[in-house]
Structures are given as C-alpha cells and as structure tokens.
From TrEMBL:
PANTHER family: METHYLTRANSFERASE, SLR1071 PROTEIN
GO molecular function list: methyltransferase activity
Methyltransferase domain boundaries: 63-157
Name of the protein: Class I SAM-dependent methyltransferase
Record GO biological process: methylation
Amino acid sequence: MSTRHDLAAPTPLDIRLRETQEAFDSVAADYDGPRGNNELIQRMRHTLWATVREELPAGSRLLDLGCGTGIDAVEFARSRFQVTASDWSPRMVERARDRAEAAGVASRMQAVHVGVQELDRIEGEFDGIYSNFGPLNCAPDLREVAAQCARLVRPGGTLVFSVMGRICPWEVAHYAARGRFRRALVRGARGVTPVGMNRHTIWTYYYMPREFYAAFAEHFALSQYRALSLFLPPPYMVDRVRRRPGFYDRLGRMDDRLGKLPLLRDMGDHFLIVMHRR
Ligand SMILES: C[S@@+](CC[C@H](N)C(=O)[O-])C[C@H]1O[C@@H](n2cnc3c(N)ncnc32)[C@H](O)[C@@H]1O
C-alpha cells in the first residue's frame, strides 16, 4: 500500500493510521460474523438503514465512509441506490467488492481504497454520505472530513453517521466490575487514544454528539441525533442478551422510544446524527 509519505520517515500520525489499518485488516475475514455483525449490531444497523431511506429516495448517489465488508453498501445498492463504498483497510475493500459481485449489484456499487483522511482523492457529487459504526472515530482531523463532505455532497444533501459516544454506562459497569478501570474510562480520553482489538491497536477519538457536530457546523445544519444501544448493552455483550432475550427485547424497545430524548440522546454505545448541507 503506498501513502503520500513513501519517501519521508513515517510521522506518528502515519504510524497510528497504519496500525489502525492493520487492526481492521486482521479481522476483515470474519467481520460479518459475531464480531462485526451480531444481533445487537444488526439492530443499530437497521436504524441507520431506516434513517437513510427516510432522508433520501432510491436512486440517490451515496458515499459510504468506512464501509467495512460492504453490508450497508450492498443493502443500499440492492434498493437501487448508487453507492461508492470507501475504506482504509484494503482487506475490507476486497470483501466489499466480493460482496457486491456475489449480490449482483456491482453495477450500482463500487468499492474504493480511500481513508477518511484522504477524501480529496474522491471525485463526484453525492446526495448523501453515511458512515456506520465508528469509522469517523478513527479520523485524525474531523474538520477536514467535514470540509471534504461539504465539497462532495450537493447543497441540501444529507449526512447520516453513527459514531461511538463518550458516555456508555454499560461499558463503564462492565469493565469496572472486572477491575479494568482504565478500560472502563477510555471514552473519557481527550484526543486520540489506543483501543485494543485482536492484539492490534485502533487509534480512536470519542465524541459527545455536540462536540462531533461542532466540527461540521460551518457547512452543515444539525437535523437530529439519537442514542443507539443505551438501554441495550454494547455488541460485545451479546452473550448476556442471548441468555434473556425477552428482557433485552424490552430494553431494545426502550432504546427505540426514548433514545431521542434530551440527555438520553447524549449517551449510549453509539449515537446516530443527521445533518444537512447548508
Ligand atoms: C467498526 S468497522 C465498521 C464497518 C462498516 N461501516 C460496518 O458497518 O460494518 C470500522 C471500519 O472503519 C474503517 N476505518 C478505520 N479507520 C479508517 C480510516 N482512517 N478511514 C476510513 N475507514 C477507516 C475500518 O477499516 C473498518 O472497516
């Protein structure tokens, strides 16, 4: 993989981006399984799908930032959207391409190896841009991402992002109960922080919804945001949910009903935020 800094010594940022890339490359092969697509993830995924469909008619041109194995991109291509799916992990991009071929939607979905830190490499105009499950938590410069989104999306166009938030009560309780206090509080970190996955490191930035929106405010008006998986636990606790499905089903309905309320919408495993190009 070549980067712009081929000839120069890698900067700390280059190294962090490379480590994050290696982390996701290492899980790409099984990312559609329990790790990347269990029932708690699917529940949040369906909320993003419904939101994109409420905002944009079929046939719209969509850009997916951090597409992973292409589950969302193929879903939208099947529903006749035109999708450009991008990701920083070459293995994820390969998987997304294969998925599009297998689903017979390659004419409506292209997958490109582009990181969110290099969106200037993407040309064209889009009606909407979405990003699901935290790729934007890996963006080293969110204001630059916002400026690139403003370049790429038409006036009045839509952004729909799901982003890892700072306040996840389940996570604090889960790790604190195991004596892993530093991990319990990792989302409170200022700036970039290392998070382990599969013996690799994902360099991660956490946000409150308003803190996230501030980076986009110059170009985009805030339409709404809501909590995802606040009453339900984060996806890595899926075993607990499987043991008591009825109870957790009720918690899921509380997420649906209450996740948009003030204060509650500032918490949860992720938040879903919708913005419109000014
Ligand atoms: C948690 S996965 C979510 C994947 C997909 N959106 C989904 O819903 O299944 C995060 C994705 O962000 C990608 N990613 C990480 N850093 C990135 C970056 N700098 N630019 C673009 N994508 C990045 C990873 O390769 C991975 O595919």
